[in-house]
Amino acid sequence: MKVTYIGHACILVESGGKHLLMDPWMVDPTYHGAWWHYPPLVHTPKDLPKIDFLYISHEHPDHFDPPTLAQINKDAKILIADYRKKRFLERIRACGFDDIVELAFGEPYHCEGTDMELKLIPPDRPWDDSAILIKTEGTTVLNVNDCHLDDTTLARIGQEEEVDLAFLTFTGASQYPGCFDFPEEVKIERWQASKRAHVEEFANWAQLVRAKRAVPAAGNYALLAEEQIPFNTPHYVNTPQDAIEVLREKAPDIEGLQMNPGDVWTPAEGLQRRNPAPDWSKRMDDIAALAKQHSADVAKYFDSEPPAPPDLFDRFKAYFGGLLASDPSVPERVNIVTQWDVTGEHGGKWVIDFTRDDDWIYEGEADNWNLRLQVPSRMVAAGVNGDAIWDNLVLSFRFRLARNPDVYMREFWTWLCKL
Known about the structure:
Layout lengths: L1 E6 L2 E6 L2 E5 L12 E2 L16 E3 L10 H4 L7 E5 L5 H8 L5 E4 L5 E2 L6 E5 L9 E6 L2 E5 L7 H10 L4 E4 L15 H25 L4 E4 L5 E2 L16 H11 L4 E2 L7 E3 L3 E3 L10 H11 L1 H10 L7 H15 L2 H6 L2 E7 L4 E6 L7 E3 L7 E6 H8 L5 H5 L5 E4 L6 H8 L2
Parallel strand pairs: 3-5, 5-6, 6-7, 11-12, 12-13, 13-15, 18-21
Antiparallel strand pairs: 1-2, 1-16, 2-3, 4-14, 8-9, 9-10, 10-11, 16-17, 18-19, 19-20, 21-22
Helix pairs in contact: 4-5, 8-10
């Protein structure tokens, strides 16, 4: 077995002359022009070998990236979990792939022509996501990517498998608290709490699965738009080195491996570096340099977004009104007032009042709002026209948010981000 770390959550496994590619995002940017690779990749899609099997864990664009998939051979066998909703399946088909296998969670799958056996693991949360266990040539690799697993599941993996190499998440990627209007000292306090929780989770998961080696993965990225540079703050973002230092502190018997773009691991030779590891103390300087280098590309991307139509409010009202009318349980569950400040051409101040029995959506300002969302009109148009997924829009860090009271409004976010 040969494992090549392409970058972020993208990993290439070679066994018996066959290639399994996982979660390929290899074309910058993603998340509506916001996310760029850091450290930069050393491979392009054209550098990849012929792909025999392509596993995609879930629909987030840093794992499922159509511009990357456009450059991958279309006879690859696509492996995804058998999700109830089929939107993900249809989006893969729309990328030109016909040979798609929907795998049941927990059922072994043998990759034809190899001795590779795969098994998908379900998340502990109500999201369409999966982790994957790969066994071949006497070696076992666990790739958790973004899939959140409970301690019971992790411990069972540790009891049933001998995990040689585990790719585990180690840092956050959320609009909270950075996109909210909290005072800076409150943001820093909450950023730092999240930061520490993520690296401790990395170490805890490595221990629960009894990994011999653990790799921090599916976490590095950079926001290069000028107004987003502060969101790269070290108050929030862990580096792989941070994760490995906590692992060394919590579980010194587990080897922490920092794999960077292009690095290779094999059972016989261990870690083989493509390039020297980054100097993580210079991360913010590196990102500032990347932002300068790509400033024209960032501006070009944002300028290329389709403009909002003149009847945007009518579309907004028809879209959200139709959703609420079709499922009366949604207003009852959400039960808050949301104020939408839609900026840019054909925007305005609009309200979705989930506390009403009907007539939920109207123009104006709500005095009793609980959640305030400032969103560019082009992004609202993409959402209501069905050209974008709301979860991806939110994770672009291009929303600005406020909440009253200062509590997590779980029902609203779960509903919106599953649309």
